[in-house]
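Exercise 4. Each item below gives a protein and its sequence. For each, produce the structure-token representation.

Item: Peptide ABC transporter permease (Thalassospira lucentensis).
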Amino acid sequence: MATTATKARFARFKNLEFVLGAVLTGGICFLVVFSDLLFPGGADKIDLSARLIAPFTNTDHIFGTDPLGRDVLARVVSGGKISLQVGLLSVAGAVVIGVIMGLISGYYRGFWDMIVMRFADVQLALPFILLAITFIAIIGGGLTNMIILLIIAQWVQYARLVRGSVLSLRDREFIQSAKAIGVRDIHILFRHLLPNLIGPVIVLMTLNVATNILLESSLTFLGLGVDPLIPSWGGMLADGRTYLQNAWWVSVFPGLAILLTVLGLNLLGDWLRDSLDPTGRTSK
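Answer:
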């Protein structure tokens, strides 16, 4: 059994994890939300007389400038709008579809459960990059299509998670009691079952926002994501790869933005997992 000192150290570590994750995520979100006020000149202002200024050598361009003289800091902050928008909207869509499918599949079982789960198995067996290339080749790229692609790719995770939880809860006494007194199925699903499995869903949501930011950046870097004319972290990485030897900052700073955002979200996800599921903690 863990000693009191060990438990105290674990608690301090988890608090530090939460604080660091909240500071990183909150700070980046603050910069992104108020980017128009912080950088009134915008991210697309071209100044050819200020091309490739090195970082920390000019007070007007702290992170330097790119080959067109655009401020790298302004573009990094503006690019965060696209990455966070893709991450949040795609996760929201996947949660709505996946939770509904999982609730119905786990509660009613039978033919509907078989159809949903077999479809989920087929989709999970399909590599994401193949799905992305096929989808974009047929539908096309762009911000909206990128969000739809990520919803299609990730709703299965929520459906399987919710289905498994529903299977373990559907025969519990409080569900059987609700059925016995004539509570309608829709009320059982959303008032009795859903509140008891929302914890793991929230944790998965937090981690998937970080994953989707990475996926958007990767696909945009490969030319399969959002419009190249729109500032995004993946697009900035792609634009700066030809200048890595002479102007490393064009790619390094958007890469650091991705790293810090994903790190902050993952720290919050780990903290939520331990906070919402105490039985999952391990102490030695």
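Check: The radius of gyration is 23 Å.
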